[in-house]
Amino acid sequence: MSTSIQRARSRLRLWPRLSRWGATDEEVAGPYPGAELVPEGKRSGAMAVTIKATPEQVWPWLVQMGWGRGGWYSWDLLDNAGQRSATEVHPEWQNLAVGDQLRFWAVGRVMDAYRVAVIEPNRFLGLYGYTDLRGRWLDPTQPRPSSYMEALWGFLLNELPEGRTRLVISGYQTFRPRWVERFIASWLLILLSWPMQARMMAVLKRNIERAAPTGATTVPRRAAP
């Protein structure tokens, strides 16, 4: 058997594992919030990690994500212009609201990333994206064009015994035309998103668990006037 065929078969076996990194069968195939926000959307892969902190301690780290805020906790050179993502909870970045636009840095410029679609404190954060194939935002109130990308990027917190939390990152996505969906969703998207999202989960787990024993993962209370 040629080396090229062996490599191709190895990649085929690897892709499903990457698309469900750390997740259980239930987390991959079970119910997940936000399906109604992406018409005709398909469930994306799921990645999950257990964090030794309560949902109340994890939540502030999610709320402060974004360019010009806490960063994305990933490879900062690629999505945050080399600026280090937050290593502590910042009270000034906790007032996130539905409709807020989050941004990221890429290829030398700041770009719109997602709009906040769902906020269920200490439970679920849903970020919505709807663009043309060049990444330019579209109006979701208008009829769907022939070519577009639409997705919900979700962060679900499930409380576990002993003060732990299961963070499950998943969502829904659709691409048009359909040949783009088959290529991007099945191959390219996994190749691009896996290293960024795996890094995000590792950094979140490390930072939150370091801060949890001191209580520094919760939002500090403001002094009375």
List strands and helices in order, with pairings.
Elements: H1 3-19, H2 25-29, E1 42-43, E2 47-51, H3 55-63, H4 76-79, E3 101-106, E4 109-120, E5 124-131, E6 148-160, E7 164-176, H5 178-211
Antiparallel strand pairs: 1-7, 2-7, 3-4, 4-5, 5-6, 6-7
Description:
The protein has five helices and seven strands. With 225 residues, it is an alpha+beta fold. The termini are far apart. The chain has one domain (20-25, 42-214): START domain (Alpha-D-Glucose-1,6-Bisphosphate, Chain A, domain 4, 2-Layer Sandwich), CATH 3.30.530. Strands 1, 2, 3, 4, 5, 6 and 7 form a seven-stranded antiparallel sheet that branches. The chain has helices at residues 3-19, 25-29, 55-63, 76-79, 178-211, and strands spanning 42-43, 47-51, 101-106, 109-120, 124-131, 148-160, 164-176. Residues 4-14 and 220-225 have low confidence and may be disordered.
Features:
7-stranded antiparallel sheet; alpha+beta; Alpha-D-Glucose-1,6-Bisphosphate, Chain A, domain 4; globular; 225 residues; 31% helix
